[in-house]
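TA notes. Do not distribute before section.
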Amino acid sequence: MSGRLGFLVDSTRCINCRTCEIACKDANGAALGQRPRRVRTWEGGEWPRPVVANLSLSCMHCDHPQCLAGCPAGAYRKRADGIVLHDPGACIGCQYCTWNCPYGAPQYDPEAGRVMKCDMCADRQDAGENPACVDACPMRAIEVGILAELEQRSGVVPEIVGLPDPSLPGPCIRFRARPEIQTRL
């Protein structure tokens, strides 16, 4: 792949089975309590038409990653393809990245004394494979690809109700969702 990578999450397909969470946790050796990928559920709408939407979220691999900007140890770096990597060997466990990230992607492990986060399964992608979450999803609600190409698909939007303002970090994630939870059509 050539270009900036990103995720496409389709909330019209996600059934909240959390298989992506388990696959990500297993692939990354996450500690107890750490969930580098999390399924969130939004409820809204008005009677008699309630709206429920599920979204599988992880690190957004932002254009301007706040985790990288706030790390005094230099434990973060951004690859040319946009993947934001964390080096656990350089991490000093200060947790500044956890405070800076508006999406809660870096997660602290008190037992190890450092954080970890989704790296978009960079090693798998380098080997020509999909991230673990993408392959595990039985509903095919998660995709990874060139962000510019994902944006061209029908019904794809850059924002979802309930997520932080994307203007500063520039998250590399796009969504397909019912209009009731889109912030921009």
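Switch to the second chain here.
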Amino acid sequence: MNPIYILGIQIIQVLQMMSPAFDGVMKFFTFLGTVQFYLLLIPFVYWVVDARLGFRLLLVLISTDFLALGFKQLLHQPRPFWIGNVKVLAEETSYGIPSSHASDSLAVWGYLAYSLKKDWLWALVAVLVGMIGLSRIYLAVHFPTDVLAGWLIGLAVIVIFAVGERWAISRLEKLSTGGQIRVGFVLSIVMILTGWIINLLIALFPDPPQWAKFALHARGMSDYISLAGALFGAVAGYVLMRAHLHFQARGSGWQRVARYLLGIAGVLGIYLGLDMLFGLVAADQTAIGLVLRYLRYSAVTFWAIFVAPWVFMKLKLSEQPAGATAVGMA
């Protein structure tokens, strides 16, 4: 066995000496690093706090998840509980390194702290990101090196956005509304093609037989399709919102609460409703099923970014600011 994995197993065994007393705490922090949690957090930021910041957080999450997924498949390494000698406190069916919990938490919370420039938020980020990473090691779903690699990806995404954001915006603003939407679509197709190439490459390197019962969803295109669809729906929605609605997350307390509850209800309704409907049409891993998956995730983010704000404004839960002008991606 790889010496790094041996050391990682030993660290996990030491941490698991605190089990079961800390199992619940660690599972709580693990939940705070899931995509499901961010899909509750990011709409809150977008609808209730600041639409511009919320949209960028969504792009950060999609970008980070895409990078983590690509590296997971290219490296195709095991998780600790696949090897043994640890308590199985959680299960995952994708590859180990890098930890997407670690990468997502550092990227999303770090970018939030970078944008808001609050010292107390940086301190909160350090504790939260550290605990999420520790929880993944404690639960034996990641080696310490997986978490470190995830943090490197998350940090890289923050730097890329911080350095390249103004450059990208300055060029996108020169395009028409349709041109900006086409850029979002092309980027989503690039994500899909990248995933396809990666899957072709790793097909040459089958997993060891002892991993077979664990790595059930480690390969395949589903997650790339989901991310690509979410990206296109988000970009199209934001471009149209800025061109026609000029939604701003302002209003009284009751308006903000009503917006969030109504918006989340729409997210869940579209996601679950289309999942059931499309499931009757085609299996998820078929060509048609993958196209429908792309449409489903596009519909969810398009609702969150454009349709929900339109509904809010129609219901007087938000009002268009006076003198608003169309302004691309800014």
